[in-house]
Amino acid sequence: MESPAVEPAAEPAVEIIELVKRYGGATAIDGLTLRAGRGAVTAVLGPNGAGKTSTVEICEGFRKADAGTVRVLGLPPDAPALRPKVGVMLQSGGVPPAMRCGEWLRLVARFYARPLDAGTLLTRLGLSDHVRTPYRRLSGGQQQRLSLAAAVIGRPELVFLDEPTAGLDPQARHACWELVGELRSAGVSVVLTTHHMDEAERLADQVVIIDRGRVVAEGSPAALTGAERQLRFRARPGLALEELLNALPAGSAAKESPAGHYIIEGQVGPELLATATAWCAAEGVMADDLSIERRTLEDVFLELTGRELR
User: Which residues of 155-194 are buried (b: 16+ CB within 10 A; e: fewer)?
Assistant: First the structure.
């Protein structure tokens, strides 16, 4: 994918300062501040209801903020000059139900001076056999892919992708990942929301975790997960973790989450591994799927936002 005509600029692709959005008596966004860098992929994560979609919709100009400052490519979100520079992929496609797949993409392309070739893009996203298929007859995953194609066809400088791989099968998901990687390589700024932690780890240069309308953590995936390793294994639920901790080297921590899944943290080396397995053997515990892993983005996410359903 060719690079868009992006002039060097000091300001970030998106800058949000003390953003507030209320719906009636409920506060969806509560003083949120974040920056998305130029030419980078920024992943915005959070539980359902955390304020992710409202934040993105304000940046796209579809909703008005109640307070705070939002700048997109240095301009207010509703600035007409942004329209040819920004691509948007919505959770709901916004496509007329009777519109044929190919017709819709060609129509969107006409709004841009140098659009990508619609046929090539449809082929790339596995939609070439559905050019004449009405939107309402596409599967959910096919509708997602068409929305992604419409978001990038104009060679934008900035793309907003709201849960771009929701409902996609593994092949389509990987095709989406490859396209996002090409956008980054071409210097396009990407802001995406996702519930897939592995997707954020794989794609994002910067991760922003929000909860209850506020940023609770941000940084690169490597910075958020750290270099700390963990010992993980499965066993019967309800092991006596206090007894296990007494046997482990000082500074270790152990938890069961979820039931029957155990995580030991600390200086994970030969001594800790030998002590843990010896304790299991003495207690008659079979430690299944024992492995040493680094902390994942999902671990960080759950530690910050909790494990309860919302």
Answer: bbbbbbbbbbbeebeeebbebbeebbeebbeebbbbbbbb
Q: Which two tokens stand for residue 168?
A: 């996609």
For residue 5, count CB atoms less than 10 angstroms from its CB and return exposed for 0-12, middle for 13-18, buried for 19 or more.
Answer: exposed
Q: In the numeric block, which tokens belong to residue 170? A: 């593994």
Model confidence pLDDT, tens digit, residues 216-226: 999 999 899 87
Position 265 scores a pLDDT of: 87
Asked if the model's pLDDT at residue 7 lies above 50, the reply is no
Tell me the pTM.
0.81
Range of the domain at 247: 227-294
Q: Are residues 53 and 154 in the same domain?
A: yes
Q: Name the one residue in this structure whose structure tokens are 């006596």.
A: 240
Domain match, 107 and 215 both: yes
Contact 165, 176 (CB under 8 A): yes
Tokens of 136: 């309402």
**Residue 77 belongs to domain with CATH number:** 3.40.50.300
Task: Give pLDDT, residue 8.
Answer: 44
Number of domains in the chain: 2
Note whether 84 and 130 are same-domain residues.
yes
Using pLDDT thresholds of 50, 70 and 90, give the confidence band for residue 6: very low
Same domain, 158 and 269: no
Distance CA 236, CA 288 (A): 10
